[in-house]
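Weekly structure sync, notes
Attendees: PL (lead), two postdocs, one rotation student
Agenda item 3: pending single-chain targets
PL asked that the sequence for the first pending target be pasted directly into the notes so everyone works from the same version. It is reproduced below exactly as submitted, 524 residues in total.
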Amino acid sequence: MFNRDSQIKNLQSTDEFDMVVIGGGASGLGIAVDAVSRGFKVALFEAYDFAKGTSSRSTKLVHGGVRYLAQGNIKLVTEALRERGLLEKNANHLFKRQMFLIPSYQWWHKYYYGLGLTAYDFLSKRLSIGRSKVVSAKTAIQKITNLKSKGLQGGVTYFDGQFDDARLALNLAQTASESGAVILNHCKVTNMLKDDEGKLIGVAVTNTETDEIINVKSKVVINATGVFSNKILKLAGRKKKSLKIVPSQGIHLVLDKSFLEGETALMVPKTSDGRVLFAIPWHNKVVVGTTDTPIKKPSYEPKPLEQEIDFILETAKEYLTKVPTREDVLSVFAGLRPLVAPEGDKSNTKEISRGHKIIHSESGLITIVGGKWTTYREMSEDVVNDAVSVHNLTDNKSKTRGLSIHGNLSKFDKKELDEDLWFYGSDIRKLQELIASNESFRMLIHPNYEFKVGQVIWAARYEMARTVEDVLARRIRLLFLDAQAAIDCTEAVADILQKELKKSDSWKVHQIEEFKTLAQGYLI
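Predicted structure, written out during the meeting:
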């Protein structure tokens, strides 16, 4: 079962694992799913919560990357488009076929981008999710009624994928657990176990809820901690440096859906700083971003910079007739990309490859850095293949190309989803039964949103939510949708969790204080 007690019991009853994965983001969870589906004994440890870092703070796109096509990175685009198609099949409940519009204010732009997107369609081959089209100014305005019409020459429409990143991370954790892996959040790797020759034979894990330290033996240890990889590399005793991890910050602003009328997303291919800007419908709101700002020191709660906020608002103002201001921002969130540059090259983060790199340490530690959500599955397969080869494990082939992820539904079943609970996928019926079982479970936790008490209880019982933040940030996403609303229902959620998790009054008080402090960082 996917609950903490059963996971810890399974951990303690296993003498040695084939692989221990450190980090519960896209990379780590993907590796755990790939490895356990091949028949390996796997344990994964996340110091905080699944997708706490970068993996819950993306632009919510499953895409080939139109910008990478413009850079000539055909290989990355082709791989990403293939992976986009596979994710649509394997996690259909979270995947949305999203139309985008690139507006053209110079007559030749729509033909230039139209040609490029025809190549984008071609590269997706049989996994295409829709063809691009050059459209007139009139059609462009019909697609996005808030689009500025002055000087508009038309545009190009194309299709890409959209998803919920934190929910996919959770579903990957559940998939790995159902296949036999030990998956634990709020368990921090605090030391490495080594033999007399200095080779890794496991890790020491601290249960951050009890401070108990558990020694876990493993044939292979994989570091999938993203921008925090250097901490684990140092813990393992890294001596040489061949790659430099360059954290780059990207922020997103969340606005009311009225700022982007309709279901079509806006894509600006080149802003004043050379980046792409997106405005995307998501959970009945609009997500606008992103930026690309080099950061010296990574943080679990990166703070958006004032100039980043101003840049996004100013850029949006150039294209939308309903102009967003700082007062309109419901939530602002920042994420750090774990980009990889050659040693000594810390220049333009926009030009650094979004591909992934595998680093081998003298101790036997395998570290994966770089990459992006869209290619998480292929990246994970590469890492497990590498671990099999380097550590002479049984060479079972990857099965994840056709592996259905927890919650997956057929396209037919997907049409029947409750519009407020769609992101639960195949769990919806059981969740609805739980909500219907008690009148108090049907109560809303906030008057402006359809999130119910039963969803908080479900998160605690079946989704390993252990804190107010786990629930409001990553199980129901309210912190990312409306930070003030999340603050307003902190006490209610803390009260439910206290009862479900059998916690003390002092725990509840601490949770309320901690979450409200954290949530202030999502407000402007």
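Discussion points:
- The CA atoms of residues 174 and 406 lie 6 Å apart.
- The mean pLDDT is 92.
Action: rotation student to compare against the earlier draft before next sync.
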